Protein backbone atom coordinates (compact mmCIF):
# COMPACT_ATOMS: atom_id res chain seq x y z
CA UNK A 1 0.00 0.00 0.00
CA UNK A 2 3.00 2.28 0.11
CA UNK A 3 3.99 4.64 -2.64
CA UNK A 4 6.68 2.83 -4.68
CA UNK A 5 7.32 5.66 -7.13
CA UNK A 6 8.25 9.23 -6.44
CA UNK A 7 9.61 12.18 -8.35
CA UNK A 8 13.13 12.69 -6.94
CA UNK A 9 13.50 16.09 -8.59
CA UNK A 10 10.36 17.64 -7.11
CA UNK A 11 10.99 15.97 -3.76
CA UNK A 12 14.56 17.35 -3.67
CA UNK A 13 13.16 20.82 -4.37
CA UNK A 14 10.80 20.40 -1.43
CA UNK A 15 13.57 19.21 0.90
CA UNK A 16 14.26 22.80 1.78
CA UNK A 17 11.12 22.46 3.89
CA UNK A 18 12.08 21.94 7.54
CA UNK A 19 9.63 19.08 8.01
CA UNK A 20 10.97 17.05 5.09
CA UNK A 21 14.54 17.62 6.27
CA UNK A 22 13.57 16.60 9.79
CA UNK A 23 11.99 13.42 8.41
CA UNK A 24 15.50 12.58 7.19
CA UNK A 25 14.39 11.81 3.66
CA UNK A 26 17.49 13.47 2.17
CA UNK A 27 19.69 10.85 3.84
CA UNK A 28 18.28 7.97 1.79
CA UNK A 29 17.09 9.44 -1.52
CA UNK A 30 19.74 7.45 -3.41
CA UNK A 31 18.52 4.13 -1.97
CA UNK A 32 16.24 2.21 -4.38
CA UNK A 33 12.72 2.06 -2.99
CA UNK A 34 12.65 -1.74 -3.09
CA UNK A 35 15.71 -1.82 -0.80
CA UNK A 36 14.30 0.66 1.73
CA UNK A 37 13.21 -0.44 5.19
CA UNK A 38 9.58 -0.14 6.25
CA UNK A 39 10.38 3.02 8.19
CA UNK A 40 12.19 4.59 5.21
CA UNK A 41 9.26 3.79 2.92
CA UNK A 42 6.80 5.22 5.41
CA UNK A 43 8.84 8.44 5.80
CA UNK A 44 9.13 8.72 2.01
CA UNK A 45 5.39 8.22 1.51
CA UNK A 46 4.58 10.80 4.19
CA UNK A 47 7.20 13.17 2.74
CA UNK A 48 5.72 12.84 -0.75
CA UNK A 49 2.23 13.55 0.59
CA UNK A 50 3.41 16.56 2.58
CA UNK A 51 5.50 17.94 -0.29
CA UNK A 52 2.38 18.29 -2.45
CA UNK A 53 0.87 20.69 0.15
CA UNK A 54 -2.60 19.17 -0.23
CA UNK A 55 -5.71 20.65 1.37
CA UNK A 56 -6.57 17.15 2.67
CA UNK A 57 -4.20 14.49 3.99
CA UNK A 58 -5.49 10.92 4.26
CA UNK A 59 -3.19 8.74 6.35
CA UNK A 60 -3.71 5.03 6.94
CA UNK A 61 -1.81 3.79 10.00
CA UNK A 62 0.86 6.50 9.66
CA UNK A 63 2.66 5.52 12.88
CA UNK A 64 3.51 1.99 11.74
CA UNK A 65 7.27 1.56 11.17
CA UNK A 66 8.12 5.06 12.45
CA UNK A 67 10.79 5.65 15.08
CA UNK A 68 9.96 7.89 18.04
CA UNK A 69 11.76 10.94 16.62
CA UNK A 70 9.98 10.74 13.27
CA UNK A 71 6.69 10.14 15.07
CA UNK A 72 7.18 13.33 17.08
CA UNK A 73 7.96 15.30 13.90
CA UNK A 74 4.83 13.93 12.24
CA UNK A 75 2.68 14.77 15.28
CA UNK A 76 3.99 18.35 15.35
CA UNK A 77 3.44 18.75 11.62
CA UNK A 78 -0.13 17.40 11.72
CA UNK A 79 -1.04 19.57 14.72
CA UNK A 80 -0.03 22.68 12.77
CA UNK A 81 -1.42 21.51 9.41
CA UNK A 82 -3.90 24.05 8.06
CA UNK A 83 -5.99 21.61 6.02
CA UNK A 84 -8.07 18.57 6.86
CA UNK A 85 -6.34 15.41 8.11
CA UNK A 86 -8.14 12.08 7.97
CA UNK A 87 -6.32 9.40 9.93
CA UNK A 88 -7.09 5.73 10.31
CA UNK A 89 -5.06 4.50 13.26
CA UNK A 90 -5.05 2.07 16.15
CA UNK A 91 -2.45 4.20 17.96
CA UNK A 92 -4.56 5.82 20.67
CA UNK A 93 -1.64 7.92 21.99
CA UNK A 94 -1.06 9.36 18.52
CA UNK A 95 -4.78 10.09 18.16
CA UNK A 96 -4.80 11.75 21.58
CA UNK A 97 -2.10 14.15 20.41
CA UNK A 98 -3.36 15.04 16.92
CA UNK A 99 -7.14 14.56 16.82
CA UNK A 100 -9.72 17.21 17.62
CA UNK A 101 -12.66 15.21 16.23
CA UNK A 102 -13.29 11.48 16.03
CA UNK A 103 -15.67 9.88 13.55
CA UNK A 104 -16.82 6.48 14.74
CA UNK A 105 -18.45 4.20 12.20
CA UNK A 106 -20.45 1.47 13.91
CA UNK A 107 -23.31 -0.61 12.54
CA UNK A 108 -23.24 1.31 9.22
CA UNK A 109 -23.78 4.60 11.09
CA UNK A 110 -21.33 7.44 11.66
CA UNK A 111 -21.15 9.44 14.89
CA UNK A 112 -18.93 12.51 15.26
CA UNK A 113 -17.31 13.22 18.62
CA UNK A 114 -15.49 16.47 19.43
CA UNK A 115 -12.13 16.21 21.15
CA UNK A 116 -9.26 13.75 21.10
CA UNK A 117 -9.39 9.98 21.53
CA UNK A 118 -9.63 10.04 25.34
CA UNK A 119 -12.49 12.53 25.13
CA UNK A 120 -14.21 10.31 22.56
CA UNK A 121 -14.02 7.33 24.93
CA UNK A 122 -15.56 9.35 27.78
CA UNK A 123 -18.34 10.69 25.55
CA UNK A 124 -19.04 7.22 24.16
CA UNK A 125 -19.40 5.75 27.67
CA UNK A 126 -21.82 8.55 28.63
CA UNK A 127 -23.81 8.03 25.42
CA UNK A 128 -24.02 4.28 26.07
CA UNK A 129 -25.28 4.92 29.61
CA UNK A 130 -27.95 7.30 28.25
CA UNK A 131 -28.93 4.78 25.56
CA UNK A 132 -29.18 2.05 28.21
CA UNK A 133 -31.47 4.23 30.37
CA UNK A 134 -33.67 4.98 27.34
CA UNK A 135 -33.79 1.28 26.49
CA UNK A 136 -34.80 0.34 30.06
CA UNK A 137 -37.45 3.07 30.04
CA UNK A 138 -38.80 1.76 26.71
CA UNK A 139 -38.90 -1.77 28.07
CA UNK A 140 -40.90 -0.61 31.12
CA UNK A 141 -43.32 1.28 28.85
CA UNK A 142 -43.71 -1.76 26.57
CA UNK A 143 -44.44 -3.96 29.62
CA UNK A 144 -47.00 -1.41 30.91
CA UNK A 145 -48.77 -1.23 27.52
CA UNK A 146 -48.77 -5.02 27.13
CA UNK A 147 -50.24 -5.39 30.64
CA UNK A 148 -52.96 -2.82 29.79
CA UNK A 149 -53.76 -4.65 26.56
CA UNK A 150 -53.91 -7.94 28.45
CA UNK A 151 -56.30 -6.39 31.02
CA UNK A 152 -58.50 -5.02 28.24
CA UNK A 153 -58.60 -8.40 26.50
CA UNK A 154 -59.38 -10.12 29.81
CA UNK A 155 -62.21 -7.64 30.51
CA UNK A 156 -63.58 -8.09 26.98
CA UNK A 157 -63.55 -11.87 27.42
CA UNK A 158 -65.37 -11.55 30.76
CA UNK A 159 -67.94 -9.21 29.19
CA UNK A 160 -68.44 -11.64 26.29
CA UNK A 161 -68.88 -14.56 28.73
CA UNK A 162 -71.46 -12.66 30.79
CA UNK A 163 -73.27 -11.66 27.61
CA UNK A 164 -73.32 -15.28 26.48
CA UNK A 165 -74.59 -16.39 29.92
CA UNK A 166 -77.31 -13.73 29.87
CA UNK A 167 -78.42 -14.78 26.38
CA UNK A 168 -78.43 -18.44 27.45
CA UNK A 169 -80.59 -17.64 30.50
CA UNK A 170 -83.05 -15.68 28.37
CA UNK A 171 -83.68 -18.65 26.11
* Uncertain stretches of 5 or more adjacent residues: 1-6
Average pLDDT over all residues = 84
Largest sheet: 2 strands, parallel
**Helix segment tally:** 6
What gyration radius follows from the Cα positions, in whole Å?
31 Å
Count of extended strands: 4
Q: Termini, distance in Å?
A: 90 Å
Overall geometry: rod-shaped
Give me the strand/helix succession: HHHEHEHEEH
Range of strand content: 5-15%
Helical proportion, percent range: 55-70%
Q: Strand order, main sheet: write it out.
A: 1-2
Structural class: alpha+beta
Describe the 3D structure.
The strands form 2 sheets. A two-stranded parallel sheet has the order 1-2. By secondary structure, the chain is of the alpha+beta class. The model is unreliable at 1-6 (pLDDT under 50). 58% of the residues lie in helices and 13% in strands. It has helices at residues 8-14, 18-22, 38-51, 68-80, 92-98, 117-170; strands at 56-60, 84-88, 101-106, 109-114. The chain is built from 6 helices and 4 strands, in the order H-H-H-E-H-E-H-E-E-H. The chain is rod-shaped, with a radius of gyration of 31 Å.
Amino acid sequence: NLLLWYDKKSLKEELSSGVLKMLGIDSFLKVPVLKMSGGMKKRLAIGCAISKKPPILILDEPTNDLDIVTLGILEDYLCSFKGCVIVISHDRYFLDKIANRILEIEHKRGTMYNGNYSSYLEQKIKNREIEEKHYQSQQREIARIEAAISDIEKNQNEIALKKDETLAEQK
